[in-house]
Amino acid sequence: MFGRIHAAPVRAFALSVLAATTLAGCSTGGGGAKDTAYVARDVETLYASAKDRLDRGNAKLAAALFDEVERQHPYSPWARRAQLMSSFSYYVARDYTKSIQAAQRFLQIHPGNKDAPYAYYLIALSYYEQISDVQRDQKVTEQALTALREVDRRFPTTEYAADARLKMDLVQDHLAGKEMEIGRFYQKTAKWAAAVIRFQNVIETYQSTSHTPEALYRLVESNLALGIPSEAKKYAAVLGANYPGNEWYEKAYDLIQDKAPSLASR
Fold it and tell me: Are 256 and 233 in contact (CB under 8 A)?
């Protein structure tokens, strides 16, 4: 839904790790299956090969080589660095499941590491990038929101948290949009009570989103259809008080005038 978003904190962190690494020279030409075949290599050469593939835009192969650093040299300081770069490389390659797994593995082994905020952030972004349109199941959208909230809760003063808060607003708007879609479907099939539940969820759970004015209007509509004009007027009043110039208030006012004129003058 949101398109491919390369957040600046992700790229900046990865570049800083690569730039700060001084490596011995090595042969990095070629590519293909032979690059990831098990060949015992010193850690500097192996890491440099992974870095080179990432620099060249072959993120999938870079991720495999960073994984090989960890496999061949699990107790080296390079292994810790490679875990994060593996997660980043999988993220760039759009293999979000493996990106999440690599970041989670890093957090399990190094929970208090100074780079833990980045690992949590990569997990959140990997879920975020998978958000689909509102007509599909929203499980991954909810996972993205949970992961973004975790970044904000754990590291509120970091740049990762600042970006997470911006993305949370977009995710909540997306989830509200899904509720609206379901509510409108219930209206079309005259399941008014079920529609009311969906629209109420929007104004109670996602009240800061762009969908709130329409949700209030739909509550006016649904309650009139249910024969509860007093409830309809209540929601129309809330709509007028909070969104007086909004098109949905104008529609709600006209609807009350048409369907419950005796209430409109009160």
Answer: yes
Q: How far is CA 263 from CA 32, 51, 68, 218, in A?
A: 74, 70, 72, 18
Backbone φ/ψ region at 82: left (φ over 0), alpha (ψ -120 to 50), beta: alpha
As a whole number of angstroms, the distance between CA 78 and CA 71 comes to 11
**Rounded Cα–Cα distance for residues 212 and 208 (Å):** 7
* Cα–Cα distance, 95 to 103 (Å, whole number): 13
- Structure token digits, residue 103: 């970041």
Question: Is there a contact between 214 and 184 (Cβ–Cβ < 8 Å)?
Answer: no
Q: Which fold has domain 1-130?
A: 1.25.40
Report pTM: 0.75
Q: Where are the domains of the chain?
A: 1-130
**Cα–Cα distance for residue pair 245/255, rounded to 1 Å:** 16
Please say whether the beta carbons of 87 and 97 come within 8 A.
Answer: no
3-class DSSP assignment, residue 113: coil
What confidence tens digit (pLDDT) does each residue in 76-132 have?
A: 889 889 999 999 999 999 999 999 999 999 999 998 899 999 999 999 999 999 987
Residues 6+ apart with CB under 8 A from 193: 226
Instruction: For residues 82 and 79, give the distance between their C-alpha atoms in angstroms, rounded to a whole number.
Output: 5
User: Residue 188: CB partners within 8 Å, gap ≥ 6?
Assistant: none
Q: Assign 156 to helix, strand or coil.
A: coil
